[in-house]
Design a protein that fits this description.
It is a multi-pass membrane protein. One of its GO terms (molecular function) is transmembrane transporter activity. The chain is mainly alpha-helical. Helix content is 79%, strand content 0%. Helix 6 packs antiparallel against helix 10 and helix 9 packs antiparallel against helix 10. It is globular.
Length: 281
């Protein structure tokens, strides 16, 4: 095994890991970086390839959905006895879990649909070339790093989970209205910051609430369920998003987001969710 790491991955040897586990973690980081790089290359390039092949928006959505389904088919091969539907339903039936999970899914779903179709929107609506679309995706990624690294941590130390949950849903509503009125790339650049803020905040807050709502032995399983939301969005999102975009245009994403999050905000006002007023730890 030592010779393998020295020959195949020489740049990892300089770290002089103290155990095999350290080396496995390092290789995992490398694999994750390569995987994400290829994923975003696929997201950025595939729409231009689809357009050159003559596919319309709905057909492109079908293509993306098929790709997502093929990804999900690997699930039963790895750990099917652990991540079973029965186990998932058991956790979701615990007190306070189902409603928070639904808020997590529903609040970000319209934005997820928009982001799934953004590459097509950047071509047809904004009229951007592939490299310009790549710059916008990079800008969005930088905003995520800034918000998660500099903003969320400070807010969680000063405000309770309920306050931040309601704030993120309210910001999502404002983002929805802004998306409905958006007409240019400049408008999108302005909208991107509150969009990223709401996405990051509601993701962190709901994960925190859900992991504290289950027994410590089920924390890992609950985190796994939470992390399954983005892949599911990538699976069904392109088909739904393609239909909305072709039938109603870009503004439909904004109106759907506005309506969904206003309903969620009113629900949060009426109900004490979560039951305990705590800060994120």
């Amino acid at each position: 095994m030592n010779s393998f790491f020295q020959v195949k991955v020489p740049f990892l040897v300089s770290f002089q890991p103290s155990s095999v586990l350290d080396r496995v973690i390092q290789i995992t980081y490398v694999i994750a970086a390569v995987d994400l790089t290829c994923l975003f290359m696929q997201i950025g390039i595939l729409p231009y390839l689809a357009k050159s092949l003559g596919l319309d928006t709905v057909e492109f959505g079908y293509l993306q959905t098929i790709f997502g389904v093929l990804q999900l088919l690997g699930g039963p091969v790895f750990g099917s006895s652990i991540f079973s539907l029965k186990e998932i339903m058991r956790l979701l039936k615990l007190p306070g879990v189902m409603e928070i999970f639904l808020i997590k899914v529903l609040s970000g779903l319209p934005t997820g649909l928009f982001l799934m179709m953004f590459s097509i929107i950047s071509i047809n609506f904004f009229g951007l070339e592939a490299i310009q679309s790549g710059y916008l995706m990079t800008y969005f990624g930088v905003l995520q790093m800034v918000v998660q690294g500099l903003v969320i941590g400070r807010l969680t130390s000063h405000f309770t989970e309920r306050t931040l949950l309601m704030l993120s849903v309210l910001v999502f509503s404002g983002v929805g209205l802004a998306l409905a009125l958006m007409t240019s790339v400049f408008h999108y650049c302005l909208i991107a910051f509150p969009m990223v803020f709401a996405l990051c905040t509601i993701g962190i807050i709901t994960d925190s609430i859900l992991t504290k709502a289950v027994p410590p032995s089920d924390t890992g399983a609950m985190l796994g369920i939470c992390s399954s939301v983005p892949p599911l969005t990538r699976t069904v999102g392109p088909t739904i998003g393609g239909f909305l975009y072709k039938r109603f245009g870009v503004s439909s994403f904004g109106y759907v987001q506005l309506a969904v999050n206003i309903i969620l905000f009113l629900y949060l006002l009426k109900n004490k969710i979560p039951q305990k007023e705590e800060k994120v730890r």
